Amino acid sequence: MKKRLYSIFTVALCAIAIFSTSAIDSKVTAKADPDKEAKTLISRMNKAVNEKAWNIAAGYAKQIAVHYDNRKIYDQAAQYYDLNARYWEKYGKPEWGIYNTIRADHIRTVVQTYAEVPITQNRALEKFEPVAGAYVGLYPAGKTFSGSPSKSEEAFGKKHAIYLTYTHFNRLYEGGHAFPVKYAEEVKQLGGALQIGWEPHKGLDEVKDDEYMRQFAREANAAGIPVFLRFACEMNGDWTPWHGDPKKYVEKWRLVHDIMAEEAPNVAMVWAPNFLPRDNIDPYYPGDEYVDWVGFSLYTIPYSRGALKLGGNPIDYLRPLYEKYSKKPMMVSEGAVSFHSYQLGQDFTPWGVWQLANMYAYMPRLYPRLKAITYFDLDKRTTNYDNQNNNYDLHDSPPMLEAYKKFTSMPYFLTKVETGAMPDNPVTYKPISEAQNLSGKVNVFTYVKLPLGEQPYAVHLYSGSKLLLKRAYAPPFEMKVDFDALPASGKLTVKVLDKQFRILVTKEFPYKKA
User: Fold this and answer.
1) Fewer beta carbons within 10 angstroms: which end of the chain, N or C?
2) Span of the secretion signal (predicted)?
């Protein structure tokens, strides 16, 4: 999708929220003792909190956060960025704190160890939802296969469950088809499912119960494959012609849903905002009975708006949305990692490989209702409809391609779409302290996130503080631990190391076998 900068008004509000606090007390910032400066600001913030002057408290919280951020005391900085967002929410302006929570995520250290446990299914599944695992999907726009699903399968040497394409309202294909019949036939030959971004480029008024829509629905049904229909996606972004009228959007969405339910039972309706902005999404939600899946466009890029964003992480970007909308099965309906910034003329491949690990090796395990990820395989230089700042084309980077193949070949990923699908060994993952019945050899992994995209070299796992159990040297830092050889309860200690084997983080996790 074409993405412009947010409106001048929105940017101005964000700027007020982020920068105006520096003028609260210029004398404070001139103090020589940084600890005394922090204590003074904290005292003033607490006074504002006691008075419920939330806008003033938010301003001081931001100053404290920046103070610690500049001193590279990142965990404390993250704490106060989060407080800034909380106080803006109490003030009635939650959108003013969003970019501060994002900064908090960029600099926060997270270390958590998870255990693999059998899955228990105790709820009804939505259309095409797997019991466990996640579908691997692809938008095949890379230069080596020019939009062809079959050529992309040859190029990747692997199957994908879902292939993505786009069409717009009232477009007719060769032979007078309203539906991309030829593309669907190619996907069917591969045993795949189809995801369609269906876009009303002339606005919502062209969405009508007319012969074009009925023909589209009938041809979708005749395709004989699962279809994920992503109608008017990214509606929360002002770069789309269908943005700005949530009431009309909901009305049109429900119309499309009802026609598909009548004409094309093989169509699952995917409601799919962009991951930002996230403060204006709710009014566009059509209602649970009209939505089968929730999807998000989710891109991780190293440079944006004049600054490096190396602390950006798809797991963090998705988290607040997952917490809110995972009552439905979720998908990354389109997403990618940029490994080259054309704005900087700089390669970020090692960082990109790590972000692919976050996207595929970690994210579906941390978010078990994330049931599909479709990679947007495209070099933006080859487009004329959007900014040309980033390269997502995996075949332009052998390390990125190798990492993608490795991570998407994990047994957790599914290559066939059907309701109730599951891997051969259906499992889920629990934090080690929450896992029960730990016995025998158990697969565990450790999620590590360091400030500003720093990458750890190794993870060592100890029983207690001295007995080394396992080492791992690549994400997702998987290990097989024999719990029968461990005490009935105790602590596992994780040590995160850099290339010089200096300890960066040490964290303990209590466990109980029964």
Assistant:
1) C
2) 1-23
The mean pLDDT of the chain is 93
**Distant-in-sequence, close-in-space partners of 103: CB < 8 Å, separation ≥ 6:** 65, 69, 78, 81, 311
Q: Are residues 88 and 137 in the same domain?
A: no
pLDDT (tens digit, 9 = 90+) per residue, 240-251? 999 999 999 999
Q: Which domain holds residue 89?
A: 8-108
Classify residue 224: in a domain, yes or no. Answer: yes
Q: Which of 234, 263, 289, 402 is catalytic?
A: 234
Task: Evaluate if pTM is beyond 0.85.
Answer: yes
Calpha distance 400→337 (Å, rounded): 9
Is residue 485 a contact partner of residue 454, using CB atoms and an 8 Å limit? no
pLDDT (mean) for 371-384: 94
* C-alpha closest to that of 300 among 369, 231, 368, 373: 373
Read off the pLDDT of residues 488-505 as tens digits, 9 standing for 90 and up: 999 999 999 999 999 999
Query: Residue 354 above 50 pLDDT?
Result: yes
Residues 197-240 pLDDT 10s: 999 999 999 999 999 999 999 999 999 999 999 999 999 999 99
In a domain, 261, yes or no: yes
Last residue of a domain, one of 44, 76, 108: 108
Residue 418: count of CB within 10 angstroms of its CB? 14
234 annotated active-site:
yes
The alpha helices in 246-309, defined as continuous H runs, are: 246-263
What is the distance between the alpha carbons of residues 261 and 290, in angstroms, rounded to a whole number?
10
* In contact, 202 and 171? CB cutoff 8 Å: no
User: Average pLDDT of 441-465?
Assistant: 97
Query: Which has the closest alpha carbon to 337: 396, 382, 386, 272?
Result: 396
Instruction: Please report the pLDDT score of residue 180 as a whole number.
Output: 98
pLDDT (0 to 100) of residue 314: 98
**Residue 96, CA atoms < 13 Å, CB-side half-sphere:** 24
Q: One of 334, 402, 434, 508 is an active-site residue; which one?
A: 334
Q: Which two structure tokens, joined as six digits, stand for 320? A: 């607040």
334 is catalytic: yes
pLDDT of 282:
97
Tell me the per-residue pLDDT of 138-185, one tens digit each, with 9 for 90 and over: 999 999 888 899 999 899 998 999 999 999 999 999 999 999 999 999
Q: Is residue 200 within 8 Å of residue 168, measured between CB atoms?
A: yes
Work out how many domains the chain is built from and give that number.
3
Domain-ending residue, one of 108, 142, 164: 108
